[in-house]
Design a protein that fits this description.
Length: 243
Amino acid sequence: MELTDHIAIVTGAGRGIGRAIALELGRAGARVIVNYRSNATSAEEVVAQLGGRGRAVRADVSTTEGATTVLAAATEWGGLDLLVNNAGIHDDRLLMRMTDEQWQRVLDANAGSTFRMCRGALELMYRKRSGTIVNITSVAGIRGNAGQGNYAASKAAIIGLTKTLAREMGRRNITVNAVAPGFVSTDMLADVDPRVLEGAKGMIPMGRFGGSDDIAPLVRFLGGPGARYLTGQVIAVDGGVSC
Ligand code: NAP
């Protein structure tokens, strides 16, 4: 229970990786704000599983207003110890056919939300000189991925932001790291061409896709006492894809 009395926010926590992270933080003793955008039922299920240590907050965190709404919930609870920027989307197309709208929407949803949530969270963490931010990026942000120019660019932006904030905030005892999943079996992979997925699986040294529960324990560790001197890192959890 190393996160007892910690207040955490997980964006996009109603399903997928965010849900697994919220539940893992709850098992470590944290109180968790479960942000979601559209599906209140699944977010409330996560809150129910958190057994009184959770609260669902509906907000589109790609907007300043939405980010402010989520952060206000943490303030009501008394502050913020751990922010996990997990919310994300993809909208894949070869770059030569990609529209301006596709580019901007994915950049706003992924990098824009991370920027806006970090900016607001730092106001809460800066004064008390402690806090942890974990940004969920992707191996696509490290290596690129054909058909995902907008997504890869947004995830690379998150890596740049992570390293910059680690430098800006180190002396305030605020750590900022990024977790880069490889292929993880969630709804996000559901609309990817099965032939592309088969090819992708062949490139994974461990020979299988990850599960959300392969990602969540690392986030718990990064939020806990064992990681207090760990900052500015991008840690891939990808079955060896990026090694
Ligand atoms: P997912 O199952 O599609 O879930 C994404 C979550 O993000 C949903 O709960 C969604 O909420 C939420 N969300 C999206 N935009 C939002 C916004 N503007 N405001 C609030 N919530 C928003 O995806 P996932 O696979 O769990 O992905 C989680 C994170 O891991 C993403 O950042 C993704 O890029 C990253 N990642 C995933 C993989 C993978 O293979 N799955 C690999 C590398 C990185 P709604 O339900 O309301 O739409």
